[in-house]
Specification:
The chain is α/β, with parallel strands linked by helices. It has one domain: Rossmann fold (3-Layer(aba) Sandwich). Helices cover 27% and strands 27% of the residues. It has six helices and twelve strands. A seven-stranded mixed sheet has the order 2-1-3-4-12-11-10. A three-stranded mixed sheet has the order 5-6-9, with no helix packed on it. It has a two-stranded antiparallel sheet with strand order 7-8.
Length: 209
Amino acid sequence: MPARPRGKLNIIRVGVLALQGDVREHLAAFRRCGAEAMTVRSADEFDEVDALAIPGGESTTMSKLLAAFNLEKPLRRRLDAGMPTLTTCAGLILLSREIVDGRPDQLATGTLDLTVRRNAYGSQVDSFEADLVLSELGDPPFRGVFIRAPRIHTWGAGVEVLASVGGEPVAVRQGLHVGLTFHPEMTGDDRIHQLFLEQLESARTEDAA
């Protein structure tokens, strides 16, 4: 489904952390929504973007790659400075406060006040899809694609639940951070990417007022 019709947004540059996962799909979705999108693979590139998307993948492997390429420190620096994020699946795990079944050396930045469990629904064969109701998107429901998805076990008072499955959060927002346990980039429905960009544009307008 194409993005919802909107007035033209001021150009926002979004980076997609390009270590693993559906990087091209996220880039394409943001570009269809009118944003400038680029890959982020080096420390300097973190400073070139207004926001960052961290795609799915394998969270322990992504932690190791961030360390191997000396990217953990620049990532933390930009997060501490308030850089907004859209995180999906493994990306959400990396930004959580606690990973209940994680490795001792696994990255959890604490950006999102969440406790999560990896691969909580089972293995690859247990992947599934579900219709999600997000009030800000309107109709029709958003089709969520869950692949070795994490589960959000606990969340803090500052976390807003945007969508649930079986009473458990699968989409959350904390300030300018949107975290998802599913893969919106795999659906062809750009409404969540559009919503994220509109949220950034609104914050930018408020800062300029």
